[in-house]
C-alpha cells in the first residue's frame, strides 16, 4: 500500500461558518470560519485553518491542540486569570483539560492540529 503526502492548501478544505455558541459568548457576537483539511483514520487527529472576528468566549478543552497564528491577535486566559497575548507568528499548544477564555482582538486566523484520545 502506498501512502501519499497530503498537501494543505487554503480554500481546498471543508468549510463551516457560523457564530460561536451563544452559551459560551462573554462579549461581542463573534463569527467563526473553520476550513477543515484532514481527519485521520482513527478520527482522533484533525487539522485545518480557523478564524474569527472580535469577541470573547469560554473554552473547555478535552483535546490537545497545536496552534500557529497566521494573522491577528488574541488573548487566552486560564481559569486562574493568567492571560497571554498571542499574535502573528506565534506557535503554542493548549493541553487537554485547559479551561478559560479566548478573546479575539479585531480578527484572527490560526492553523490548528488537534489530537483527542
TrEMBL record:
Pfam families per the UniProt record, alphabetical: Cupin_3 (PF05899)
Enumerate the spans annotated as (S)-ureidoglycine aminohydrolase cupin domain: 41-112
Task: Supply the InterPro entries for this chain.
Answer: RmlC-like_jellyroll, RmlC_Cupin_sf, UGlyAH_Cupin_dom
PANTHER family recorded for this chain? (S)-UREIDOGLYCINE AMINOHYDROLASE CUPIN DOMAIN-CONTAINING PROTEIN (PTHR40943:SF2), CYTOPLASMIC PROTEIN-RELATED (PTHR40943)
Tell me what this protein is called. Answer: Cupin domain-containing protein
Amino acid at each position: 500500500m502506498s501512502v501519499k503526502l497530503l498537501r494543505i492548501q487554503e480554500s481546498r478544505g471543508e468549510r463551516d461558518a457560523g457564530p460561536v455558541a451563544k452559551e459560551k459568548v462573554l462579549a461581542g457576537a463573534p463569527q467563526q470560519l473553520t476550513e477543515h483539511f484532514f481527519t485521520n483514520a482513527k478520527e482522533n487527529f484533525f487539522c485545518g485553518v480557523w478564524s474569527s472576528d472580535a469577541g470573547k468566549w469560554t473554552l473547555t478543552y478535552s483535546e490537545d491542540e497545536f496552534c500557529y497564528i497566521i494573522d491577528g491577535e488574541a488573548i487566552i486566559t486560564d481559569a486562574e486569570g493568567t492571560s497571554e497575548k498571542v499574535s502573528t507568528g506565534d506557535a503554542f499548544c493548549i493541553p487537554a483539560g485547559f479551561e478559560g477564555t479566548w478573546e479575539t482582538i479585531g480578527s484572527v486566523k490560526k492553523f490548528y492540529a488537534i489530537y483527542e484520545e
